[in-house]
Write a structure and sequence with these properties.
The protein is built from four helices and five strands; from the N terminus they run βββαβαβαα. It is α/β, with parallel strands linked by helices and about 140 residues long. It has a five-stranded mixed sheet, with helices on both faces. Helix 3 crosses helix 4. It is globular and about 35 Å long.
């Protein structure tokens, strides 16, 4: 089962995808988040082209686990996205995923310019890999 993950920010959306076996996540691309249907249509296109069967959306909870302004923005975006895709969408706690993405890119020797360009996609891959690992370890029910 191929799964897509989204790291939805105010300006950009990081996208990551799993392999067909659902073991590994990899960054795919970063698209701009702008008014209108363009980003929804691009995500729907990726879903169709890659035969994605589920979307995992990173939920940017506050450090204490409460929902803040960014969570409401993410939920609003996701409600609109659901009109464009016909696959289940679920939320996943993404606290600290961007920090982990930065660590990964620094450890891999990525230049600062490249890190800034790919940060959101790598953060989406961090979210997705955690989701896949948790599911594989049996801490999530299989649908």
């Amino acid at each position: 089962m191929r799964i897509l993950a989204l790291d939805i920010g105010e300006e950009r959306i990081g996208i990551a995808i799993s392999d067909t076996l659902g073991f590994l996540a990899r960054p795919l691309e970063v698209i701009p988040r702008q008014p209108g249907p363009a980003s929804f249509q691009r995500i729907a296109q990726i879903v169709t082209q890659n035969q994605v069967q589920r979307i995992v959306v990173g939920l940017p909870l506050l450090p204490d686990g409460r929902k803040g302004k960014q969570v409401r923005s993410t939920e609003a975006y996701t409600r609109e996205l659901a009109k464009y895709v016909q696959v289940p969408i679920e939320y996943w706690d993404e606290r600290y995923s961007t920090d982990r993405a930065d660590e990964i890119m620094i450890e891999s020797g990525r230049k600062r310019k490249h890190r800034q360009r790919m940060r959101d996609a790598v953060a989406a891959a961090v979210i997705l890999q955690e989701y896949l690992d948790t599911k594989r370890e049996g801490r999530l029910s299989s649908d």
